[in-house]
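Notebook, p. 212. Picked up where the previous page left off. The plan for this session was modest: take the two constructs that came back from the sequencing core last week, fold each one, and keep the raw output in the notebook itself so nobody has to go hunting through shared drives later. Recording the first one now, exactly as returned: residue sequence, then the structure token string.
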Amino acid sequence: MRDVARSSQGEASVTSAERARHQPVRVAQIESSVTHMGFAAFSLIDVTRNLRTFFAIFDLFLGIFGSLALAVASLGIINTLVMAILERRREIGVLKALALPIATCGNCFLPKRVSWVGRRHIRRNPGWAIGRAIQFGTMVT
């Protein structure tokens, strides 16, 4: 085959050859033997290897982007809680001066916590209901 591929211009030459393999275990062995013969070898295993590398880098990028978003969100939450404490500093000082237990001081923040949880459910539940309606609509038809 090598002689046919490297023939002079007057004779016919082979530009490509295909070898179908149904056992993927031996593909690497066949590919290396074809490469050692002096030909270029290509297999779908090479493509999947390149795709795995691409998606690994893409996942890394998304992980970095997500961790950055998580860090910014956590700073926002911490800032909100610190500001809530600083706004109620005088109230907390009066409650501690009256020798109330710490649990009672914590209850002065309860309305704010309840409003956060309530707003979260008000925002999330309609979206969940719309999603379930769309899912039901697609399953019926």
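Okay, moving on. Second construct, recorded in the same format:
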Amino acid sequence: MGGVTLTIRKFNVRHFAIADLIASGTLTHALANRLEDYILQRRNLLICGGTGTGKTTLLNALGRFIPPDERILLIEDTAEIQLAQQNLVRFEARKEQNGVPAVSIRDLLKASLRHRPDRILLEKLEEAKRSICFNS
């Protein structure tokens, strides 16, 4: 209590593909096909779950289904998503630090529309930020 806490997050060097998620029983083949179809049909998806449940792993795997000619704008609280697309623009929110003003998810979402993305990926939205995004 009252002491210093340090958290080190070590990310896996290996990025799981959909086939790995099917092999491990995380997804069925039918569900993986349906999710791929949704992405190719440009449907909106919401991936949610508790800490450590594989949301980022699933999003990384699903990102491989996005056609390479599409411009993707990725907005994150903390940079964690690993997408290999060439036409990727990354935005990261930040808290106010040393007199540098904060940049909120809402600020980034508004700015993202000026970049004319084909897709906007929002990652790890906190409770208060969800209503902002769904109302935008």
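Notes on construct two before I forget. The first strand starts at residue 72 and ends at 76.
Flagging for discussion at group meeting.
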